[in-house]
Amino acid sequence: MNYKFLSKYRQRLKLFQIVLIFFMCSISLAEEENSAGKINNGNIFTAEDINRMNVSSITDVLEMVPGVSTVGNDDISINGSQEILVLLDGRNIKDPISGHIKWDQVSLNNVGRIEVIKGGGAGYGENSSGGVIIITSKLADTFSGNLEAAAGNMNYKEYSGDIQTRVKGVKIGVMGGYESDDGWRANEHKKITRGGINLSYAPRHDLVFSPSLNYYKDIKGLGGPYFAPTLYNEATYESYSATFFIKINGLNIKSIYTDSMDQSVDAPPAPIPHIIKITPEIFNQEITADFSFSEFGTMNVGVGYERANVGIETNIDNVQLPYAVHNEKKEWVFATFKRESADNPYSIYLGLRGTRYNNFENSLNPELNLGYKKDNYGAVFVYNFTDKLPGYKDRYRSDAFVIANPDLKKEEYTNYKLTLFYSPLDVLSFNVTPYYTEIKDLISMDSLMTESGLKRTFVNVGSVTEKGFDSSVSWSPDKIFNLSLSYTYKSAKDDATDLWVPMRAKHRFQGRISSSPMERLSISTTVSYSSEEFSNSENTMGVASHYEVDARIEYDINKYKLFFQVDNLLDKEYIQPFLIPGRTRFFYAGLRYIF
């Protein structure tokens, strides 16, 4: 028994136990299955729901959920937190190299179901303190699918398709897509290719086999910051993955293998040419079991492990550095308990997860989720303690300007949030969530003076407190009109210096109006606003506030759907927090055939 490991978390467990005992002694609950897994915290969209929406991307769908908003081009925020886990058919599409979500791996036309869970924790592991997004590809018994083609300015082209059918008891889903454009400024081009096949075979109602294969390649020019353009820098990300699920009654076995590559090339005549390649090979295995205890509740337990070999190849100014391989290992065990009922306003969700790492301190992560709902109002309180692992790029990549720091610690998040919701009418709803988060060992960029000049490195800088709230209102007086508004306030300061944490906007606002003025026609307009943000921890560099207006029109003709979209309709110029100019006006038109 590792008593040193347990003593570190004794105080945290004691608080968790006191709250649990108090709650269990105060109320009596009954059990009922909830597909979202958490209490009043889930939002689910089916393929039919998505088809009725006037949306163009997966993030457009997610922003329909109160408290969810996009941040930049690659990330998303839930209740003010950007630590979101995104699972596509069970595999994580958050890139372990850079830490960004690879949204382009998701074809909206191929999505069968989306589930948003606010608050992750014990059941999902690290990088999930804000929540979990579960995306499932379509599989159907009959022959069906989509074909789509679009074109626009910046030499934009997009072709995609998916087919589902059933052959001798096996459900088959095949999808593929290609997308490219020349970008809005020099060296901001992109070219994306994706493909995949999903199978499902159920010889008995209690036995299901679900294998899948996926391929994704993304080539992008990196134009660099506005004050120092990088005209010859190009990044390539490529990934092969194989997933295999077996479900036997309440037993679930998941195996995932991923082989990916992230390459950055700054070719001559760049001032300091380089070729840097990171190649993680990851194998993940998890076994979980579900137990139902009649009226008492349901429990989910699981064990798993992950092994990763991360290769690093570096060539700077024609100097080839020795090839390096880093081994990443982790094992975990967890248990969650849920008790709720449609006949009882009270509900509870509990979780505890223990993880052992080879390169980080071990973790013990508790979670508590209490809910109350009656008629048209309710509340949900969430407490969890989660971790965020630094990306492979932050730890292992060195180039002409950045020094690797393999000794980076994981960030530790202690989260408290209270969601209050009220629907005085069927067509009107309100939602507000105050939150408070303590972050230990926050990772930030630091500057070092070396013999070859000023360089940067990632370091753990201390503790940070984030607090604020997000709120939303939705009004749908009839089938032809919908108005949704959301506002987020965030205070994020370093506890030691009282300086603002970079990449955190104090105010964010989004408004969306959707209307159907005539049959088959749908029009939507979205307005997004973000206040000023600092770009460095010293608060000496930042970007101004900005807003953007997007619009989309769709028209259905039987099995065909015509669409036209404009992003940044007013062609506003702005700088993003990572000092890259925002994209200028971008528009495209296309046709989708649904069969």
Q: Which structural traits does this protein have?
A:
about 600 residues, mainly beta, 5-stranded mixed sheet, 5 helices, 33 strands, disordered N terminus
User: Over the alpha carbons, how many angstroms does the gyration radius reach?
Assistant: 24 Å
Low-confidence stretches: 1-42
Q: Approximately what portion of the residues adopt beta-strand conformation?
A: over 45%
Structural class: mainly beta
Measured distance between first and last alpha carbons: 59 Å
In round numbers, the mean pLDDT is 87
Number of strands: 33
Helix content: under 10%
Q: Sheet with the most strands? A: 22 strands, antiparallel, barrel
Which term fits the overall shape?
Answer: globular
Number of helices: 5
Describe this structure in words.
- The structure is a single chain.
- With 595 residues, this protein is mostly beta strands.
- The chain is 7% helix and 60% strand.
- The protein has 5 helices and 33 strands.
- The chain has helices at residues 3-8, 10-26, 47-52, 58-62, 392-396; strands at residues 42-46, 68-71, 75-78, 84-88, 91-92, 111-118, 131-137, 144-152, 156-167, 170-181, 190-204, 207-221, 233-248, 251-266, 274-292, 298-316, 319-320, 324-341, 344-357, 363-374, 377-388, 402-403, 411-425, 428-450, 453-478, 481-494, 507-515, 521-530, 533-534, 542-543, 546-557, 560-567, 586-594.
- The chain has a 22-stranded antiparallel barrel.
- The longest helix is centred in the first third of the chain and has 17 residues, at 10-26.
- Mean pLDDT is 87; it is low at 1-42.
